[in-house]
Design a protein that fits this description.
This is Histidine N-acetyltransferase C-terminal domain-containing protein. InterPro entries: Hisat_C. It comes from Sinocyclocheilus anshuiensis. This protein has 286 residues and is α+β, with helices and mostly antiparallel strands. It has two domains: 94 residues, Aminopeptidase; 169 residues, Aminopeptidase (3-Layer(aba) Sandwich). The protein is 30% helix and 31% strand. Strand 3, helix 2 and strand 4 form a beta-alpha-beta unit. The longest helix has 17 residues.
């Protein structure tokens, strides 16, 4: 686990995920050794019925960073995936750095808002967000958000033919993989075609500050009022699980970023953790 030293400022998910990766169907984990020491790692998860690989967990130990080792293991993993899973046509990955203008147009951009707080102030923060919603007069503030607990119901939403165009959410051919993640889903329940869907992960431990919790919220849709309601709903549903320090990462469409940042401001104990940044999402041939 020492390979995660200084990764993401203590936010690395790898120490928590690694052992489950060892038994996950469709998962490949490649490690590199120099002599007898582990020096790098990369993983890929095959999805979309065997046609796509999601690349995750690229790591190099501190002494090997900047020595081109990452490129070596990436090329090896690409070749290994092609050999073991010959039907893979697409490689999917994210990155947080700027790839330059010549490559940037190939990426889909997601805005990321991060919050930092402790369990003592979390309840009052969530209550404050609820109060802001009550006084809001936005047009969609009365639309209900309902939990989706049944896999068949989730399947009905995700296989909707025009879902992607409405919510920027890919269609659902990976329900078995999603089910393994133990996600908590909410959907715009006003009837007809939903204008918003979202989910959060269970809180999980990270190395930050000697030991903290983190969980992630993904928001799909561009309706600001529904995004605010979804955010407060997710935070409210997880507050009983929070102990000690917690970091929350919220992934959203770019158009929501300024409004949600303002929505979360004004609290003494739960505050923005890092400056807003963009996560770059790329699909390409492996």
């Amino acid at each position: 686990m020492a390979i995660s030293q200084d990764i993401y400022g203590g936010n690395d998910y790898l120490p928590h995920r690694y052992h489950s990766w060892m038994t996950e169907p469709g998962r490949v984990v490649i490690i590199a050794r120099r002599g007898r020491k582990l020096v790098a790692l990369e993983s890929g998860l095959v999805v979309d019925g065997g046609e796509t690989v999601i690349v995750e967990g690229l790591r190099a130990c501190p002494k090997e960073r900047g020595c081109c080792l990452a490129g070596v293991i990436q090329r090896f993993v690409d070749g290994y995936i092609k050999k073991v899973y010959p039907n893979v046509k697409t490689k999917r990955l994210t990155r947080g750095d700027d790839p330059g203008p010549e490559k940037l147009h190939k990426f889909t951009l997601l805005a990321v808002l991060s919050l930092r707080g402790d369990s003592e102030g979390f309840n009052s923060f969530v209550s404050g967000l609820k109060e802001k919603l009550v006084v809001s007069d936005e047009s969609n503030s009365s639309r209900p958000l309902v939990p989706v607990k049944d896999l068949d119901a989730l399947k009905a939403f995700l296989f909707d033919s025009d879902l992607s165009s409405r919510l920027q959410l890919p269609g659902g051919s990976n329900l078995d993989i999603l089910a393994r993640r133990n996600l908590t889903w909410f959907v715009d329940g006003s009837g007809g075609k939903p204008l918003f869907m979202s989910f959060h992960t269970p809180p999980y431990p990270i190395p930050y500050n000697g030991g903290s919790l983190r969980f992630n919220i993904d928001l799909y849709g561009t309706e600001t009022s529904l995004a605010k309601k979804a955010l407060s709903t997710h935070l409210n549903s997880v507050k009983s699980e929070i102990q000690g320090l917690v970091l929350v990462y919220i992934y959203m469409h770019q158009t929501l970023s300024k409004d949600l940042k303002r929505f979360c401001e004004g609290h003494d104990t739960v505050k923005q953790f890092q400056n807003f940044w963009e996560q770059l999402f790329l699909e390409k041939e492996p």
